[in-house]
Every structure is written in structure tokens, then in C-alpha cells.
Amino acid sequence: MDQSKVLLKSTLVYTIGNIGSKIITFCLLPVFTFYLNKSDLGKYDLMLNTISLLVPFVNLQISDAVYRWLIESKGDEEIKKKAITNGLVVVTVSTLLFIGLFWIVNQFVHFEFSVYFIFILVVSCYFPFLQQLIRGLGKGNLYSLVGIINALLIAFVNAFFLIFVKNGVSGLFIALILANAVSIGFIVYSLKLNRFVSLDLFDLGEAKKMLSYSWPLIPNMISWWLISTIDRYIILYFLNTDANGIYAVSTRFPAIITVINSVFLLAWQDHAVVNESKTDFVSNTFRKYIIFEFSLIFLLIAGSRFMVEYFIDARYLESWQYMPFLYLGVAFSSFAAYVGVGYQKERKTVGIFVTTLVGTVVNIIISSVLINYIGLFGPGIGVFVSFFLVYLIRLKETKSFFPVHVDNVLFFSLLFTAFLIMGLSFLDNKLFNVLAVVIAVGLSLYLNRELIRKIVLKGKVMLKSKVNYN
């Protein structure tokens, strides 16, 4: 099958499996802002981001190693069982060690919502681990089904506790625990996981090899969460929890792009790691990805002000101002991840570790300095600059073993246009704000005209065949 078609097929599978829960969370934002005050929303957001930051450290990102071992097993059942057993042992032992450490620390420093914290952490370790098993075993339909089930559970359980039980932020924590726990149970039952697990097959030497591959991937996995979570603590230190609540809403909208990016990047990882792709294919795919990504950014930058005004509680109105730089940060995070697959393909994962560390340090410095002068704009600019730097470093470092040719004229023209639309959006004039939307829509349609044409033609063919069939 043509490489582009294979990549598209994988993208569709991951779209169904990943996009549901993320979109549900985004759609629940108006409900959250209505039933929670800024302080509670800030606490909820801080808790989830802290857990997202900790999970890869707790499970040592062993799920990525299990996935890699599974796709390279070539149907060898013993290799599969050994990889899954090694992974489960590592996750279980490391999770228990962290719980013990947390319990000791909690005796001296009391953490609010500590019980919820532990339960959310546990399900957040096992759920993505099991999702990676599904990927590695090539069960795309099950992956999609699990994503749908998890999304529906999150929607209904969140709504139940928040609207009917009315126990505030505690209800959101309980809902998250229940939704993920049920999803975990469904995966275990569907895979008949016991078939793949045998302690007799645990191999310490092989587990060490897997860990040597996985641990440098920790920063890459959490790069967005690491930088955005650190920003939460910087905001908490220099400002207050109300400011964190505002920033939490600001980050929810860029999550739209994060969802789309994660879907494509999972498919890209599947394709690039296993297949020997020509430089032209890698570069052409990246060019199309850049155009599509910037098109989304144009639309979101231009539309954020209107979306917040009409769909979010008035207390959070200022949140739209900080979104444009976060959109750009998410975009460059995805560009860096695209290029970073080269490190994984060649098993040079230490490069991912070092570049992400550089980006994190740069973000801390910029955010800490600017927040005193321009408030929440500081962390937003810090996110953008740090991911832009990570992208440039990776592009240069991987040139020798994973070359990606970039059309710099197109690239920087799109970046300049993003800043132009941003400037029009910031003007306190509805006419210029509407002009920004018109420019964004017009450019997005023009840049993606070939894609739109293909979709329309495909739709016509499908419609014609259906009419003829009837």
C-alpha cells in the first residue's frame, strides 16, 4: 500500500481512539466554568497537570519500550509475553514505590486531595500503558473502541457529579478515577491480558534494555505538560490561584490542536519507526503538516476572542488574550515531535532528553522574568519561545540521520501571518477583529485547496455510487 495511504489509515484509527475524550473535556469547559469558581478550577487544573507531569517519571515511560518491542516481535509470542510481563512488572513496582514515598512525605507535608491524587495517579499510569499494548499488538479497532468508551464515561460521570450530585471539584476527581478504572477493566477483559503475563518470563536484563530505551523519552512525552505545569507553579508563586484558573481556561483552547497533533504524531511514529521512508516523503509530509497546522492556528487565533465571549463565563473573559502564544507553542511542540521521531527510529533517545531539558530551562527563565512585567503573557511567550528553540535544535541535530527539508520562505511567511492575525485580534475594534477572522478563513481555505478538492471529489464519488446503488 502507498505510504501516504498507510499513514492516513493509522491517523484515522488514532483519531477515533484519542479525539473523543479530549473533545468531551473541551466541551465540558463551559460547564466547569459555570459550576466552579476560578480558584477551584485552578486547583483541578493544577492537580491534573501535576499528575500528567509525574506519570512518565513514575512508570519510566516503559510503555514506549513495550510498544517498540511488540512491533518488532514479528509475531513471536514469547517475545510479546516477555515484553508485556517486563513492562507490567516495571510499572507496578515503580508505582508502589512512588505511593510509599508519597505516603511518607504526606506525613510531614499535608497535600490537599491526597487520596484522590493517589488514585488518579494509579489509573493514569495503567490506562496509557494498556493503550500502548493495544497499539503494539496491532489491534486498531479495539484501540478506537476503548477511546470511545472512555470519552462517553468521562462525559456522563463528570456531568452526573458536577450537575446532579453538586460536590464540586471532588466530583471531577471521582469521575476521572471511575472513567479510567472502567476503561482499564474493559481493556484487560478484551485482551485477556492473563494470556500475555507470566512472572516466569520476567527478564531483568531485558527489562534494563527496555528502560535504557524508554527513560530518555520521559521529557519528550511530557514536554508540553512539563513546561505548562511549571508555568502553573510560576503563576502560583508570583500571582495567585485565581490567575491559575484564568490560565487554565487559556490552555484548554490550545488543547484542540494538541488533540489533533497527538493523533497524527502517533500514526507518524508508527510509520517512521517501522518503515524506511525516503527523504522526499518525510519532507513533503512535513510541509503538508506545517500548512495544516498553521491553518488551524490562524482560525483559532482569530476566533478565540469570540469563542470566549460567547461560550465561557464572563469571569474568565481575559483568558483569550494569552491563547495566541500558547497556540504557537503547541504548534512548535508538534514540529519538534515530528522531527524527534528520528531519534526514536535510530534509538538515539538521549537526544530527545537533552533538547527537551534545554527547552524547559529556557521556559522557566523567560516565564519567571516576564511574569513580573507583563503578567500571564510571560508564561505564554515562554512556551512559544522554548518550543521554537527545541524545534530548531532537533532539526539541526537529526540532519545527518533523519533529514527533513523545510521550505523556510513558506515557513516564516506563515509565522509572520500568524503574528499579523494576532495583532488584528488584539485591537479593541470589532471591525479589525472580524477582519482577522476573514483573513484566517480565506488563507486556510487557499492553503488547503488541494486537500479540500480531494475531499469534495471523494464525497461526490461516494454520493454517486450510493445513488447508483439505490
UniProtKB/TrEMBL annotation:
Protein topology in the membrane: Multi-pass membrane protein
UniProt keyword terms in alphabetical order: Cell membrane, Membrane, Transmembrane, Transmembrane helix
GO cellular component: plasma membrane
Main location: membrane
InterPro entries the record matches: Poly_Biosynth_Transport, Polysacc_synth
Compartment(s): Cell membrane
Residue ranges crossing the lipid bilayer per the database entry: 12-36, 48-71, 83-105, 111-130, 142-165, 171-191, 217-239, 245-268, 289-312, 324-343, 350-370, 376-393, 405-425, 431-448
Record flagged with keyword Secreted: no
Database matches in Pfam families: Polysacc_synt
Name of the featured protein: Membrane protein involved in the export of O-antigen and teichoic acid
Organism whose genome encodes this protein: Siphonobacter aquaeclarae
